[in-house]
Write a structure and sequence with these properties.
Strand content: 5-15%
Largest sheet: 7 strands, parallel
Number of helices: 15
Helix content: 40-55%
Number of strands: 7
Radius of gyration: 19 Å
Distance between the termini: 24 Å
Oligomer: single chain
Low-confidence stretches: 4-13
Mean pLDDT: 94
Shape: globular
Order of helices and strands: HHEHEHEHHEHHHHEHEHHHEH
């Protein structure tokens, strides 16, 4: 009976969502609708602004090494309340439109390719860059944001590079905990995260209490699959996703853009990104969120709630 009681206790504990720990009710479905890649291009900035101002997006993160960051910095000076984090960028994936690391090649040679830019893909980064170089570049990106007066409500990872090696994640967590900035980390039921990124999700479990007890919030789940949805299906699939969400805090990622004429030269995903912007500004989406009683939140609110919450055992 003791073992059975312990098992029951364990499942009971597992069912407490991070939304609950952060002060929401057990059945509350709490969502961050997040736009990645802001600052990457003028089109990306337009997409972020449009979906936050006129749509249901609640948060975005900025790619600090990219050329269009000054435009978003100017916008944020006029709209300081936007939930704006940093999309820590360790790759430069496009063919014709690229960027180098902010720390400079002498400090982070392992992050630099033959064009003097960040590597195109995550596997090239993991093959060449040391954890020290990763941390140096993270700090350079945070420093530039601080220098430009950008708010930093959270830190996440472009193309998931910081989740690709445990020693990279360690540096990511270290900087977040040291600076008291929330980092993207999944600690709850992880329904989508385990399906989409099983390896990373499993390995990082041990970090959850440590991050939480350092005073940072943790979320229950992350949905990243919208990038693969066909443009014509985006709104429909987004609505279906909102209908099936479980209680807890879930972040749903989008890459909303309003393409300018040069944008298709940068990326083949131009139509997909426009469809993200359309889905996030669709009245049917807004209506469903209200009808289902979905609570929209931001990283800023998560941090404020975490400040009032208790420690994890």
């Amino acid at each position: 009976p003791h073992a059975a009681r312990f098992a029951a206790h364990a499942t009971l504990r597992a069912e407490i969502t991070f939304a609950e720990r952060l002060g929401w009710k057990p059945k509350d479905v709490v969502v961050i609708l997040h736009v990645d890649d802001v600052g990457m291009s003028h089109s990306s900035n337009l997409g972020g602004i449009e979906t936050v101002e006129k749509g249901v997006a609640t948060s975005w993160s900025v790619m600090m090494p990219c050329p269009w960051v000054p435009e978003i910095a100017k916008y944020l000076k006029l709209h300081p309340d936007v939930d704006s984090g940093l999309h820590l960028t360790l790759t430069s994936e496009w063919k014709l439109y690229r960027w180098p690391p902010l720390a400079g090649k002498p400090k982070v040679p392992g992050l630099v390719d033959e064009e003097g830019c960040l590597w195109h893909g995550v596997q090239q980064v993991t093959a060449h860059a040391s954890p020290d170089e990763i941390e140096t570049e993270i700090r350079a990106q945070v420093e530039r944001a601080e220098q430009m007066g950008l708010p930093i409500t959270h830190l996440d990872s472009h193309m998931g590079t910081l989740f690709a090696r445990p020693d990279y994640f360690e540096r990511f967590a270290k900087v977040g905990m040291e600076k008291g900035i929330p980092i993207l980390v999944i600690g709850g039921h992880a329904t989508y995260a385990l399906k989409e990124n099983p390896e990373a999700s499993g390995k990082l479990r041990a970090w959850i209490p440590k991050i939480w007890n350092a005073g940072l919030p943790v979320i229950d789940d992350l949905h990243t699959d919208s990038y693969g949805w066909k443009p014509e299906e985006k709104t429909e699939k987004f609505i279906a996703l909102l209908k099936e969400l479980k209680p807890g805090v879930t972040e749903i990622l989008f890459h909303a853009s309003i393409p300018t004429e040069d944008f298709p030269l940068i990326t083949t995903s131009s139509e997909s990104r426009l469809a993200d912007a359309r889905a996030l500004t669709d009245p049917a989406v807004k209506k469903l969120i209200q009808e289902r009683g979905i609570i929209l939140t931001t990283w800023k609110e998560l941090k404020a709630r975490r400040n009032k919450a208790g420690a994890m055992e």
